[in-house]
Write a structure and sequence with these properties.
Helix content is about 40%, strand content about 20%. The strands form four sheets. A seven-stranded parallel beta sheet has the order 11-12-10-13-14-9-15, with helices on both faces. It has a six-stranded parallel beta sheet with strand order 16-21-20-17-19-18, sandwiched between helices. α13 crosses α20 and α26 packs across α27. Bound molecules: adenosine-5'-diphosphate (ADP) and magnesium ion (MG). Adenosine-5'-diphosphate binds next to α12.
């Protein structure tokens, strides 16, 4: 047999049929097969004896099938397979399989297998109901660990195991992509050895060592991809905009009605230094809701305008864009009214550009952007897709990053010859590992303190399952706030309305309605269009109630928002459109209905809308979920802490990591199998340092061809090509 390597095709090795079955797992090469790691192991030293089984126990045992009988099911279609199995000590137990006709040809008398499942009782005898099973072949019998693989309907775990062993026998140890320096310092096993050990371990220590090494491969793949990305953007030329003494920014600072917080100062000088360089800034500023990110962004924009260039501020929704434009105008006062009578000397002008402008206004706005008359353009993300022309775009500020992916960031960067500086702002605190991966192409700054004078928000869970009468108290509380001259939000997970049966959420936010681990068939979530009229005729009768959601025509949205800002409405019944950026200091109460349908960070974000003024805020999380459920625990966590970082970490634990890391890999199957954002923080951090050094030293990875291949395996060849082939 000729030697094979990682790129060899499997078919000549395992045969046509097996190769086709493996293809159902997306495995066509030797490399893909040996990177298809076992999901778990059965430790033969820890198997249970049948004689010692107890009711309720989760048991894993090796036994031989003694008898198997196929029976009709009484209540349903299909057949049951009743099986008696016997272990080496001679004890027996009954097993029942529901899909009898499917498994009877595998679970035949004489077959030895690993059975695992929960021990129950039937007809006063212990039994295993529908256990998982893995038939054993002779080779398995002598091994201390059995590897269990993710399988499909087309191929069993043991078939996969057999193919892997066959291939490993023929495969010479592959060249190790990790530099010796890294391997030596981190005491990592060699790749070939790690691959053999993860598939055919002799001990638990083998499994740990192998996994540890292979996690490193993934961490390095990701970090190299990001380092390449950072390197590529850092090479691009950008317009340097050093601060201009006596310019617009100085004039603005002089008329600011408050002192900047220490964080605003620090982050402000980081940004100022970035903008002064001849390569584009790529910075993420994270700061909890109310931390004062807008001022930070505006100061950056003014520095760029002082440099004779334009700045654009992108918001996720039209409501927000319009509101940003208004608050920038308010903050700038006469400094933002260039061309008007009362304008200050250095004044610039702010142009709002959204999809909903009338034809004429739109034409004017486009013209202002193109001619450079508009120093600052505020708009929605649609602005990018529409290829608005700018006279001289120097800075792009993206507000509320969590709705804005890597690809869109790239779209921004690839405008024109000079790359604009990019400043991304997010209120969702980002755990360290997420910052190092999903946002790994950005420098990160944080605004950690809130401006002084911020009022505390008290959050309570209103558990209707246990305390149905509390619902009335919720609305009484809202009335009290309104009677005291304040305003309130009522947030629902859904818009509702006629043709909206299947639509669950108002945004594309994956957080909402994601997990329904408690209760199988929930009623549809409460909807704005149903809740608002009910409140108007009932609990909140007589109050001025407005409705806001993503389906309203843009000018109506804007009108409602303005009315609420002016105090012309007492209560705003809304979807999560108010989640980000809405700033109405007079609103002091927020009622979130079906709160269990929202993500933790999202609830935190939502409640940040209240308590922005001098009066304390209250947030009521209303839920039907009974005590003791995970959903309730999560809400209790939100009520129990105002630490956004803690909630973001919890959110990460609850969310499938694939969703988070998936953002790195547009649309392709994940090359990440072992890497965990929760468990591998230190490895990720170290890999980032190594990757940065390696790329600085060898930007084309020419002396590191193994690493170049690793990048492809981890983030896809397209991404790899985007950064390597250009260099
Ligand atoms: P966010 O970070 O949530 O976007 P904003 O920028 O909307 O927060 O700021 C919230 C409010 O705090 C605004 O009304 C803003 O004018 C005000 N603010 C910002 N910085 C300060 C400061 N240093 N001192 C006092 N108030 C501030
Ligand atoms: Mg904001």
């Amino acid at each position: 047999m000729t030697a094979i390597d990682m790129s060899s095709a499997l078919e000549p090795l395992v045969g046509k049929r097996t190769a086709a079955a493996l293809e159902s797992l997306d495995i066509t090469t030797v490399g893909a097969l040996v990177r298809h790691y076992p999901r778990r192991y059965v430790d033969r030293g820890k198997l249970t004896d049948i004689a010692g089984l107890e009711i309720g126990e989760q048991a894993t045992l090796v036994a031989q099938v003694e008898k198997s009988v196929l029976r009709d099911m009484r209540s349903r279609r299909g057949k049951l397979l009743n099986v008696v199995i016997r272990d080496e000590k001679g004890a027996t137990i009954d097993c029942t399989f529901f899909n009898g006709h499917k498994v009877q040809h595998i679970i035949k008398p004489g077959v030895r297998a690993v059975f695992s499942g929960k021990v129950g009782v039937f007809n006063q005898k212990l039994q295993l109901t529908h256990p998982q099973f893995e038939p054993l072949d002779e080779a398995d019998e002598i091994r201390p660990f059995l590897s269990v693989y993710p399988a499909t309907g087309k191929i069993t775990s043991q078939q996969v195991a057999r193919c892997v062993r066959q291939v490993l026998d023929l495969l010479d140890d592959p060249t190790d992509p990790l530099p010796e320096l890294v391997r030596g310092r981190e005491k990592l096993a060699e790749l070939g050895r790690a691959l053999r050990r993860i598939h055919v371990p002799e001990s638990e220590a083998d499994i740990h060592a192998a996994r540890h090494r292979l996690v490193w491969d993934e961490a390095m793949g990701v970090q190299l991809a990001l380092a390449l990305r950072r390197h590529a953007t850092a090479q691009r030329p950008a317009a340097a905009c050093p601060p201009v003494p006596g310019g617009l920014l100085d004039a603005f600072d002089a008329r600011l009605p408050f002192a900047l917080t220490a964080g605003q100062h620090t982050v402000g000088s980081e940004i100022a230094a970035d903008l002064a360089r001849e390569h584009p800034m790529n910075r993420l500023v994270q700061g909890d809701v109310g931390a004062g990110k807008t001022v930070v962004a505006l100061r950056a924009m003014l520095q760029v305008v002082d440099g004779g260039r334009q700045a654009v501020l992108l918001a996720p929704t039209e409501v927000l864009a319009a509101q940003h434009a208004r608050s920038l105008r308010a903050l700038l006062g006469p400094l933002g009214r260039a061309g008007e009578l009362d304008a200050a000397e250095q004044a610039t002008s702010i142009t709002l550009l959204t999809g909903s402008l009338g034809a004429k206004a739109r034409r004017q706005a486009l013209l202002d952007a193109q001619s450079g008359a508009a120093g600052i353009v505020v708009g929605t993300h649609a602005l990018i897709q529409d290829h608005v022309g700018f006279a001289d775009l120097g800075l792009v500020v993206v507000d509320e990053q969590h709705r804005f992916g890597v690809e869109q960031r790239d779209a921004l960067r690839s405008r024109g010859e000079l790359a604009p500086h990019v400043l991304v702002m997010t209120a969702t605190p980002i755990p360290r590992t997420v910052a190092m991966t999903v946002y790994g192409d950005l420098e990160v700054s944080a605004l950690r303190e809130l401006p002084r004078g911020r009022s505390p928000i008290s959050t309570s869970v209103v558990p209707l399952a246990d305390k149905p009468t509390w619902f009335d108290r919720v609305w009484r509380r809202v009335r009290e706030e309104v009677a005291a001259g304040h305003q309130a939000y009522v947030v629902c997970p859904r818009v509702g309305g006629t043709d909206a049966e299947v639509e669950l959420v108002d945004t594309e936010d994956p957080d909402i309605g994601a997990d329904s681990d408690d209760g199988e068939s929930k009623r549809p979530p409460l909807a704005v269009l149903e809740v608002a009229p009910k409140l108007a005729d009932g609990a909140l009768e007589g109050l001025r109630i407005g409705v806001l959601h993503g389906k309203l025509p843009p000018d109506e949205k804007d009108a409602v928002m303005r009315a609420f800002e002016r105090g012309g409405l007492d209560v705003l019944v809304a979807t999560t459109v108010i989640e980000v950026g809405v700033d109405v200091p007079n609103s002091t109460a927020m009622v979130i209905l079906d709160a269990d349908r929202f993500g933790l960070s999202q609830l935190h974000q939502l409640r940040g809308r209240v308590g922005r003024g001098s009066a304390p805020g209250v947030c009521l999380l209303v839920t039907d979920m009974p005590a003791g459920t995970t959903a309730r625990e999560r809400l209790d966590a939100v009520a129990g802490t105002t630490d956004g970082f803690e909630l973001a970490r919890l959110d990460l634990e609850l969310r499938r990591e694939g969703d988070v890391l998936g953002a790195l890999q547009s649309g392709r199957r994940s090359g990440l199998r072992l890497l965990s954002l929760l468990r591998h923080e230190e490895i990720i951090a170290k890999a980032q340092v190594y990757a940065t050094h390696i790329v600085a030293d060898d930007p084309g990875l020419r002396r590191h061809s193994g690493l170049a291949a690793l990048v492809g395996e981890t983030v896809g060849d397209e991404e790899r090509a985007a950064y390597l082939d250009k260099v």
